[in-house]
Amino acid sequence: xxxxxxxxxxxxxxxxxxxxxxxxxxxxxxxxxxxxxxxxxxxxxxxxxxxxxxxxxxxxxxxxxxxxxxxxxxxxxxxxxxxxxxxxxxxxxxxxxxxxxxxxxxxxxxxxxxxxxxxxxxxxxxxxxxxxxxxxxxxxxxxxxxxxxxxxxxxxxxxxxxxxxxxxxxxxxxxxxxxxxxxxxxxxxxxxxxxxxxxxxxxxxxxxxxxxxxxxxxxxxxxxxxxxxxxxxxxxxxxxxxxxxxxxxxxxxxxxxxxxxxxxxxxxxxxxxxxxxxxxxxxxxxxxxxxxxxxxxxxxxxxxxxxxxxxxxxxxxxxxxxxxxxxxxxxxxxxxxxxxxxxxxxxxxxxxxxxxxxxxxxxxxxxxxxxxxxxxx
Length: 377
Fold this sequence. Notes:
By secondary structure, the chain is an alpha/beta fold. Helix content is 38%, strand content 18%.
């Protein structure tokens, strides 16, 4: 019997970041299930004026064992038609598209519509956000256009599931939580991680990880760090990620709160090969988000078995049971500070880590493959 074929249309190498990491890991999961797999990524993903970081491209080696073709130009409608015709002729059983911002709706929506015309290919989407964190007037029409182009959707939080269902544009929609990010290598010892990062082994560390945008709430965490109880502890905060907005406001807050000796700045994009050092150096991962759907950072923390603090927004509390693997607090610096004081003062680390070893079993990639196949039927 011929192998079933899956083509994933979306971000992958040579592009960097969480989307590429996710798509490449998902492609491997389909391979493990016996599919013939290709990834069709972008020739142009974003115009430079829409990309706030320093570069869209990876400095890491290409992933081994994956067929990745650069096909789609998100800015060129003539290219969308070309890729749509090519995808229709490819006769894949399933096409998977990740949807994360309205800007991608026209290109992905046109390609999806054309691919389905062969009466064989089923197009399904993983919906990160159907309405973005930073909202615009065209968001809903663009989201509707995309949703009407696919046969089914998987959301990774129940809040996004509710958002998608309000559009009433696609019948097959299911929730499946974000799988573990287990593709950043194995755990390393705390000592090795600290040596790599040139950090003092006599200190304890918290980690804020990922691109820095206003909705990620770094300002709230800095205000919490200003709590005198935390200042009196041997605790520092590692801030590892590239600024996607004005970084000066955070440095001004650092000075006004007297935090110069409590913060470790690594305000650059962290290559995939170095992620393990950031996570294995810390005792707890802190995500003080002001808004959210789901987060890949929690699933890296689960992989490395690190306790977490998240705020009660979006789907974060669905993934981080309060008092079991970490804390769920209000979007409030005082409550964030209270939880961090409890964590360090009362030695919660070991108990949370034991619970994480059990809780993480829920988040398999095979479960995501099954969900995508189920909504394609």
